[in-house]
Amino acid sequence: MNVLVTLNSNYLNQLVVMLTSLTQSNPEIHFIVYIAHTSMTEGDFKFINRQVDSENCTIVEMSIDDNLFHGAPITKRYPKEMYFRIFAAQFLPKSLDRILYLDPDIVVINPLSALYSIDFQENLFAAATDVYQPLEIINKVRLKMPKYSNYVNSGVMMLNLPMLRKYQKIQEVFDYIEEYRNRLIFPDQDVINGLYAGRIIIVDPKIYNLSERYWLIHNLKPKNKECKIDLDWIRRNTVIIHYCGKNKPWKGNYKGKLGTFYRSFEKHTLG
User: Fold this and answer.
1) What do you get for the CA distance between the two ends of the chain, in Å?
2) Where are the extended beta strands (E) located within 23-75?
3) I need a surface site. Which of 127, 135, 145, 225 has the fewest CB within 10 A?
4) Strands 98-102 and 156-160: what pairing?
5) For residues 184 and 151, is the Cβ–Cβ distance under 8 A?
């Protein structure tokens, strides 16, 4: 399986926990993990390679050439790293036909095969929506998304690389950012939703992108009274847990229950 991550040196510890969870939860799979960056050092990659299971995981360094984003709108709020997810098809090997993008603040607790083998049906991405109405409606209005679409979280995405190479227009992305820059709250995520919302397969967030917030809201909704999910359900069914937002299990002020999964993998990496 091909996996893409983008980060800087500040997230090395979280990355190796994620990679440990990836290999331990998918022991029959060999992962090729492409790490896209602009500033990581040789020492950073030595640290990563010491931590990962080299029999099940090959690390591929991808130092991104600044010229790839020549002409891109870049500011302090919109650094060039925001383009890595959007333009992954432009710098990844042409031999790849699909790849799974994962944020480093994630753990994988069950097999990924069903997600990885998803039928794209001519779509560009597969991802989960993690917001409820009315925020969903607000996002659609804010970004002028189609009414039938859903706003997705870009922290977990399957990318259809051949279709992106064929249909993605780099200047169209730059133009969208210039037009909507005052509306972009989560820059690269907003761009993906604003430009490609009609070509994204929606997957179940309870399975493929479960956060503390989404879990809490799901269980509080009256219509889910008879189908609340607990930790046992999550252990059996959830594939990807995402510690998005400010509530992180590696911070001292963490509040939540999903951190138990992070800490179980952390013991095998940084202990």
Assistant:
1) 27
2) 31-37, 57-63
3) 225
4) antiparallel
5) no
- The Cβ of residue 120 has, within 10 Å, a number of other Cβ atoms equal to 19
262: helix, strand or coil = helix
Other beta carbons less than 10 A from residue 138's beta carbon: 12
Contact criterion met (CB below 8 Å) for 98 and 87:
no
Beta-carbon contacts of residue 260 (< 8 Å; ≥ 6 apart): 231
DSSP 222: G
Global confidence as pTM: 0.93
Q: How confident is the model at residue 8 (pLDDT cuts 50, 70, 90)?
A: confident
Residue that has been written with the tokens 């998803």 in this structure: 118
Contact present, 143 and 190 (Cβ < 8 Å): yes
Question: Residue 22: is it exposed, middle or buried by C-beta count within 10 angstroms (0-12/13-18/19+)?
Answer: buried
